[in-house]
Amino acid sequence: MRIFTALIVGALVIGLGQAVAQPASPGAELLPEGVGREAVLKVCTGCHAPDVIVNRTQKAAPWSDVVQAMVEKGAEATPDETAQIAAYLKKALPETPA
Fold first, then answer.
1. Do 15 and 34 meet the contact criterion of CB atoms below 8 Å apart?
2. Which residues of 73-87 are buried (b: 16+ CB within 10 A; e: fewer)?
3. Residue among 24, 21, 1, 2 at smallest CA distance from 13
4. How far apart are alpha carbons 7 and 89 in whole angstroms?
5. Residue 68 and residue 79: Cα distance in Å, rounded?
6. pLDDT for the residue numbered 61
7. Neighbours of 21 (CB within 10 A)
8. Residue 5: what pLDDT?
9. What's this model's pTM, rounded to 2 decimal places?
10. What pLDDT does 75 receive?
11. pLDDT attached to residue 67
12. What's the half-sphere exposure (Cβ side, CA atoms, 13 Å) at 41?
């Protein structure tokens, strides 16, 4: 009986470990590593898939303005997260001149 219990507990631990190891959002690997990436995954991917963020087509506004607009539309982020997100996006996904 102890062996059976140990096998069940082991299977549960392995299963939970695999569930935790999966990315927070499909496509998360598209976002480069860096300070603020986790905040982007937490806050932005509730509405936007990472590929939408990476391939943003409207580039007239700086990232700080885009982030502020999303907060005004209901994105739930602390002021620190908002600053981290804007700084991360500016560095990781710089605007390209037209």
1. no
2. eebebeeebbebbbb
3. 21
4. 45
5. 10
6. 86
7. 7
8. 57
9. 0.71
10. 96
11. 95
12. 17
Instruction: Note whether 70 and 21 are within 8 A (CB).
Output: no
Q: Is residue 32 within 8 Å of residue 16, measured between CB atoms?
A: no
Which residues of the chain fall short of a pLDDT of 50?
Answer: 16-23
Residue with tokens 């700080």: 64
Identity of the amino acid at 72 = E
Question: What string of DSSP letters covers 42-70?
Answer: HHGGGTS-HHHHHT----SS-HHHHHHHH
pLDDT of 26:
86
How far is it, in rounded angstroms, from Cα 9 to Cα 2?
Answer: 10
Can you tell me which residue has the tokens 């209901």? 74
Could you tell me where the beta strands, DSSP code E, fall in 1-98? none
**Residue located via tokens 């607009």:** 69
pLDDT computed for residue 20 by the predictor: 47
Task: Write the burial class of residue 39 (CB in 10 Å: 0-12 exposed, 13-18 middle, 19+ buried).
Answer: buried
